[in-house]
Amino acid sequence: MESIQRIEVISIIDDTRAKTKLRSLQLSGWKDRITDIHVVDVYTVDANLTNTQATAVAERLTNPVTQQSSINVPLSPTTFDWAVEIGFLPGVTDNIGTSVRELIEDFLKQPLTDQQRVYSSQVTFLSGNVTVEEVRMIASGWANALIQRIHIKSREDFERDHGMDRIVPTVRLSSTTTTDTVQILDTTDEELQRIGKSGIANADGSRRGPLALSLVSMKAIQAYFKTLGRNPSDVELESIAQTWSEHCKHTIFASPFDEYPEGLYKSFIQKATNEIRKQKGANDFCVSVFTDNSGVIAFDDEWLITDKAETHNSPSALDPFGGAITGIVGVNRDTIGCGLGAKPIMNSYGYCFAPPDDTAPLYRDKEQSQALLSPKTILEGVISGVRVGGNCSGIPTTHGFVSFDHRYKGKPLVFVRTVGLMPRMSAGRPTTEKKALPGDLIVIVGGRVGKDGIHGATFSSEALSAGSPATAVQIGDPITQKKLSDAIVKEARDMGLYHSITDNGAGGLSCSIAEMAKESNGCRVDMENIPLKYPGLSPWEIWISESQERMTLAIASEHWEAFSSLMKRRGVEATVVGEFTDSGRCIVELNNKQVMDIDLEFLHHGVPLSPLQTVSLPAYTPTPEVDPLISSHDWTESLLTMLKRLNISSTQFIVEQYDHEVQGGSVVKPLQGRGKVVGDASVNRPLMHSTKGVVMAHGIYPSYGDISAYHMAAAAIDTAVRNALCAGATLDHLSLMDNFCWCSSTDPMRLAQLKDAVKACYDVAVAYGTPYISGKDSMFNDYKGFDANGNAVAISIPPTLLISSLGVMSDVSRAVTLDAKIPGDLVYILGETRKELGGSEYYAMNGLVGTTVPVVDIQKNLTLYHALENAMKLGLIASAQSVHQGGIGVALAKTAIGGQRGLHIRLGELPLLHHTDDYSALWSETQGRVVVTINPSNKDAFENLMNGNAFAPIGIVAENEEFTVDGVCGQRLIETTIEELTQSYKSTFKDY
Q: Is residue 824 located within the same domain as residue 964?
């Protein structure tokens, strides 16, 4: 029996992973240097297995048809020059290792001890004429130094040492169960400010990491503890910092704002929803808004739909995979923790990245020891994180988008969204009503607590800089969460075993338990009972850690045995860590000694809200613009080039990594038509016995904000609505979510832009009758660092607003896709075209910004959308493509590519307003427009329905693959083929 067994598995057939790595390297400039790659999977088992047991485990990890394995004997290809092993650093969540550990426990029919663990790693063997420095550079692109180790050996060293080394990345921390007192009562404002910015001081003078507390907040805390006659413990101060963070409290939206003393949220977002719901009266479909982990709307008489979108920007900048997977499984938990628990049924994603070909290095520190990850590395890591999180959780990813701008280089934006399904009643209780009662047990289920996620909430409330802590990054474990989700939503909820539930997200236990304590008006926690990943964590770390896959529940003592037994049978760890009380206080004890005792009123409502002031922005006054390239246009080449642009080209390589068919409800899929065009909306059928469907869409225009934040927001809302309607949704059952990602949010000019955007959110939503049911903001998406020459660099994202729409349609058989269907079908444009190219993709392609941002004509669009709805209900429309980025030219091309059908188009038929030039007709991004195709037999009925709106027939679906566009005056502008269009559309990311 050996204490440590190293099991290695190698493929005996072509390994796709190795081929992908090789291809990626060769495309990155190593084509003539790296000739071959092989991959070996390694499982280091520290569990005292006998040789017989180790052999049995190895067999279970090996496919005998395609793989071979060994135990403590190195495997390698016949020829290679270098071996690179990459594994996790101590304490980092190792999902594969955890799964193998469970495999071993199942085989042994007994649990392993806390000290018996499994660690995964991978050895990549390279053949090629490269130096060790070059191998190290290549390996750095495969690993993230924040969370992974890299071990390199030459062939000679590998053979001499009989393989790679046995490395067991065990966490070793000095054990501590003490808390520190933080001296704030008689300290200076300067020191208070230093504590708030850089954190509590350690014994050696270093700081623990950002609390993101302003001097005003620190002085409020100081005043509170003066009334108690004592200094706070580090647990107390850290807990207040998490609870008061911008990430959790949304202080900018809540603070008095110019002439709005109630703040932007109450004055515009909440007000819009309240007014809409009042207007709808008996037809109000909202059930629970703004008060729970997700918004809730009606699906039918028996079922509800939940919706929530989150951002995970800062962690994804440091560790793209870990940040993204934590984001997606985190928003899944928002669904599981909504009401008494909803089942996640749909995921979606939204990524804002810098161009992946941007290779200029940036650093967080002047010494250039903390390099920012490259945009391409971030892109690949984020895509992979959401893929693993969603696919391993068994949740379909049905919709998504990617937006590129060089200003996302300092900090990317990672939006993740989950829609859930929940019965109206469960175990005789309304599922939207939950309340922890005094005397209920505080129960933690799921994962254990580690150092990952320390200061996650406060870190996300600041700009990315040299002080941004690596410990703020978590790595999600979707397998653990899947077991937890199924046990809760499919069993415990409907057995009536708990009174309340929430997820452990930002702030960890410090926020989840304290938030639930508001329901009962108090809590007491026994910290020594909190399950840990490893010993040695300080009390403050245990309390604020954001380690993933954890939920907090309130369970009556008489139900504990049944709940505990259920969780044990399902392989989910459940632990009692205290009880809810009615004391009005949050009390935390460690070994019978209080380490936290704070009044709940102060903890949740004591944060001081400072009035925010803006500057006056100039009124939006568009000026006439002339295309400087109009005399030299090759219109066909312009269209083909436009289709290759990052913001328009196909992201099929992302879509095909995400499982959208799991759960079997996919109706309108993320890739539409024979040409597989990435759609603007998706439709899902969550209940197989019902024809009702859920429609998911979005709208986002970061570039418009360079001209007008108001019109940027209005366009995002209009597009989110229009995209959903084009798939089959209706305005009478359509809800919205707002996700603001802003920058420099203490800058009066940025705040003025924010106010303008929020005003638009009110104006457009109220007019359309589309209430906001949930939302989120991330207010400090800035980077401060240095370039390769040591020059200070500051990068702020463009003010960005994502609007997500969610609709319920009565019959999914009426759903419509974007692809042209039948030769001879008529092509119509709905809506008038204005000369509005400011912030457009066409201008960006030519290095311009412009001033004529698209202005949403709410009343005209509303009338048109109702007519579109009626045409959809009558089945008159064969295809519908919303016109947005790239204008009509791109919309028509996508319609043609999707159907693999040619089109013959006449721009002279367009409903044009105040202009007659071809480039505006093709590339203007005027809002409120839709390209549709209809059967000629439906022509009269369709036109009668559209009467009174701006619309016109502009062409026909061709019998062949020719794509032609004639200009406003009848001259031929574009002449190409479906093959050329498709090739251009799919060329940009063909090597990804």
A: yes
